[in-house]
Write a structure and sequence with these properties.
Elements lengths: L5 E5 L2 H11 L3 E11 L3 E12 L4 E13 L3 H23 L3 E4 L1 E3 L2 E3 L1
Parallel strand pairs: 1-4, 2-5
Antiparallel strand pairs: 2-3, 3-4, 6-7
Length: about 110
């Protein structure tokens, strides 16, 4: 069953973690987003979402970790390194206060 919700876009991993603590949320969903532009230019990000059923709010944190050309093995290596450098520390912070599962929250439901 879907329910009406408000999405609160958060720009800081620290603020996201503080909101999780403040709201008593113990589960976060994560999924990868990719956007391809012409000429093999790629933007990659991870989206973290958490649902607070008490207030009908979905917290959302988008972490962009790579923008650039993508197609060669060197490009793929740079994207993997960027993921490790940018996303892994965010995952570590979040995992201290909540479980991280696959998927994304939409209208109060976790799904793809």
């Amino acid at each position: 069953m879907t329910v009406p919700v408000v999405v609160l876009q958060i720009d800081s991993p620290d603020t996201f973690v503080e909101e999780l603590k403040h709201r008593g949320i113990s589960e976060v969903r994560v999924c990868a987003w990719y956007r391809r532009s012409p000429y093999l230019i790629m933007e990659m990000k991870c989206r973290f979402t958490a649902y607070d059923p008490g207030s009908g709010v979905i917290l959302r944190l988008d972490v962009t970790y790579y923008r650039g050309f993508y197609g060669t093995e060197e490009d793929k290596r740079e994207a993997r390194e960027a993921y490790e450098k940018v996303v892994e520390p965010v995952k570590e912070k979040i995992s201290r206060v909540a479980r991280i599962l696959d998927g994304e929250y939409h209208n109060g439901e976790a799904k793809w």
